[in-house]
Amino acid sequence: MADGKMVYLDAKGQVNPVLRAKVGDTIELTLASGEGAEHDIVIPDFKVQSKPFSAASGPTTVRFTVTQSGSFTYYCSIPGHRQIGMEGVLEVTGPADASAAAPKGSNTAVLGSAAAPAVKPIAAVATDAVSIAMDPTAVPKPLGQRAPQLVKYSIETVELAGKLDDGTTFTYWTFDKKVPGPMLRVKKGDTIELTLTNARSSKMIHSIDLHAVTGGHGGGEHTQVAPGESKTVRFKAMNAGLYVYHCATPDVPHHISAGMYGLILVEPPEGLPKVDREFYVMQGDLYTSHKKGTKGHQAYDTDKASDELPTYYTFNGSVGALTKEFRMQAKVGETVRVYFGVGGPNKSSAFHAIGEIFGKVYSEGSISSVRRDVQTTTVAPGGATIVDFKVDYPGKYLLVDHALSRVAKGLAASLEVTGPADSAVYQPLSGGAHADH
Ligand SMILES: [Cu+2]
């Protein structure tokens, strides 16, 4: 890392050095890294592709002959590394007769095949893929009235193959193997000691930036953790509210999109009003190499992320997480609270419950003021909200982003309410098909 960028250094410490050679030269490049994270080098014009290397693997060497003059790009093909700086130039000069000797036609053919790669077939589905969907009922209990104290948390960052959709898998990057990561709950005035451990099996560096933290880039500045290592930060929860946390390691949008986000609730001293049920839901946008519904193992697509054109949207990490895998349930007459956040990385949510009104909304996660009787509330990427409502009538209530094209891309959650139907609240009069309760 140099000035916040990830780079190649030569023996003199030159950043992304220009490599120089003459046509006909054979080049031997030896690459090494002191980091746990893996890197590689590719030079597509000469079909060069090194093995991944890291501190654990030791150095790797590539050898190739340069057959044409020109300026050629080398870069690291590990996702995100080129975007944050691992890229340089190989300059090849040649005697005029050498380039003249090369038949023009064959030259063009070589360049053409490098510049226009065929559409990649999708990789086979990962047979070891596990569910990464976070249980929406995994909400820590209210803390009650207590004095500020020291709270210790340990979180592990884990990269793993996860189920994205029926017959489709994806390489998720996670906090504690779930998307979103664990919900944290502390009291205003508490001091939190947070240890972030990056699993030995990781290929990337990871970190945590909590929006509830003052200073140190929210913790992101001092928690850049290489595979197999741990780092600890201590901070004071100075402001009550519901806050997003996320990985802050470049390429940050990739780390967030791949699942590295969660919520931390900082309760005010008096706590929040008591409710019967609390749920934890987060929205994310995903960018994959192939369209939604393609069977196989989807790769992350940096270009689609850059263009902000998601192929999937999810609540709690995967398609169907909150419609099939987990059930959110309540009984008529109960009060329900949803801690809702948008990990993103890019898309806002028009959060809405079909057939319900949010009795109270703590807009933007701020507990200091409440809005009443809200139909749809906007939640920014890296933002959160708390919604409270009483369920007065049985049925299946869909929680959605009211940008409704996103439902077909995976974005829906279902709250099942059981109990007596009060005809004063709602009544179908034309005798058609009844609701399925
Ligand atoms: Cu990360």
From TrEMBL:
<dbReference type="InterPro" id="IPR033138">
    <property type="entry name" value="Cu_oxidase_CS"/>
</dbReference>
<comment type="similarity">
    <text>Belongs to the multicopper oxidase family.</text>
</comment>
<keyword id="KW-0560">Oxidoreductase</keyword>
<dbReference type="GO" id="GO:0050421">
    <property type="term" value="F:nitrite reductase (NO-forming) activity"/>
</dbReference>
<dbReference type="InterPro" id="IPR008972">
    <property type="entry name" value="Cupredoxin"/>
</dbReference>
<comment type="subunit">
    <text>Homotrimer.</text>
</comment>
<feature type="binding site" description="type 1 copper site">
    <location>
        <position position="255"/>
    </location>
    <ligand>
        <name>Cu cation</name>
    </ligand>
</feature>
<dbReference type="InterPro" id="IPR011707">
    <property type="entry name" value="Cu-oxidase-like_N"/>
</dbReference>
<keyword id="KW-0677">Repeat</keyword>
<keyword id="KW-0574">Periplasm</keyword>
<dbReference type="InterPro" id="IPR001287">
    <property type="entry name" value="NO2-reductase_Cu"/>
</dbReference>
<dbReference type="Pfam" id="PF00127">
    <property type="entry name" value="Copper-bind"/>
</dbReference>
<feature type="binding site" description="type 1 copper site">
    <location>
        <position position="247"/>
    </location>
    <ligand>
        <name>Cu cation</name>
    </ligand>
</feature>
<keyword id="KW-0479">Metal-binding</keyword>
<feature type="domain" description="Blue (type 1) copper">
    <location>
        <begin position="58"/>
        <end position="92"/>
    </location>
</feature>
<feature type="binding site" description="type 1 copper site">
    <location>
        <position position="260"/>
    </location>
    <ligand>
        <name>Cu cation</name>
    </ligand>
</feature>
<dbReference type="Pfam" id="PF07732">
    <property type="entry name" value="Cu-oxidase_3"/>
</dbReference>
<protein>
    <recommendedName>
        <fullName>Copper-containing nitrite reductase</fullName>
        <ecNumber>1.7.2.1</ecNumber>
    </recommendedName>
</protein>
<dbReference type="GO" id="GO:0009055">
    <property type="term" value="F:electron transfer activity"/>
</dbReference>
<feature type="domain" description="Plastocyanin-like">
    <location>
        <begin position="164"/>
        <end position="270"/>
    </location>
</feature>
<feature type="binding site" description="type 1 copper site">
    <location>
        <position position="211"/>
    </location>
    <ligand>
        <name>Cu cation</name>
    </ligand>
</feature>
<dbReference type="GO" id="GO:0042597">
    <property type="term" value="C:periplasmic space"/>
</dbReference>
<feature type="binding site" description="type 1 copper site">
    <location>
        <position position="206"/>
    </location>
    <ligand>
        <name>Cu cation</name>
    </ligand>
</feature>
<dbReference type="InterPro" id="IPR045087">
    <property type="entry name" value="Cu-oxidase_fam"/>
</dbReference>
<feature type="binding site" description="type 1 copper site">
    <location>
        <position position="402"/>
    </location>
    <ligand>
        <name>Cu cation</name>
    </ligand>
</feature>
<keyword id="KW-0186">Copper</keyword>
<dbReference type="InterPro" id="IPR000923">
    <property type="entry name" value="BlueCu_1"/>
</dbReference>
<dbReference type="GO" id="GO:0005507">
    <property type="term" value="F:copper ion binding"/>
</dbReference>
<feature type="binding site" description="type 1 copper site">
    <location>
        <position position="246"/>
    </location>
    <ligand>
        <name>Cu cation</name>
    </ligand>
</feature>
